[in-house]
Design brief:
- The chain is of the alpha/beta class.
- Helix content is 39%, strand content 14%.
- Strands 1-2-3 form a 3-stranded parallel sheet, with helices on both faces.
- α1 packs parallel to α3.
Length: 100
C-alpha cells in the first residue's frame, strides 16, 4: 500500500467495507519510509475515514510513525498487530456462561 494510486484504492476499499455493517474496520500497513506511508496523509482518504459510519482503527507503520489517518480514525494503534489485538477482546475478559 504505497504510491500515487494507493489513496484511491484505500478509499474504494474503505467505502466498500463501510457498507458491509462490520463492527470495526482496521486500516493498516506495516512500517516503511515516510514516503511509503505518505498515502495515509491523503486529504480525501482522511475525509473518508472521518465520515465512515463504522468504527475505524488505524494501525499504520511502527510505533513512532504517525499519519493523518491516525488522527481521523476512532482509535490509533501503534502497529498493525496491535490494531488486531485492539479489535478483539482478550480471552481473560470474556465470561463464559454455562446452562448446566
Amino acid at each position: 500500500v504505497q504510491g500515487d494510486k494507493a489513496p484511491a484504492d484505500l478509499i474504494k476499499n474503505l467505502k466498500e467495507a463501510d457498507s458491509k455493517e462490520y463492527e470495526a474496520i482496521i486500516i493498516a500497513r506495516g512500517g516503511g519510509s515516510f514516503e511509503d506511508l505518505f498515502c495515509f496523509n491523503d486529504e480525501n482518504l482522511i475525509k473518508s475515514i472521518y465520515n465512515a459510519k463504522t468504527f475505524i482503527i488505524s494501525g499504520v507503520g511502527h510505533e513512532q510513525d504517525y499519519t493523518l489517518a491516525d488522527f481521523a480514525a476512532d482509535l490509533r494503534a501503534p502497529t498493525p498487530s496491535a490494531a488486531a489485538e485492539l479489535a478483539v477482546p482478550h480471552i481473560d475478559n470474556i465470561k463464559l456462561y454455562s446452562t448446566s
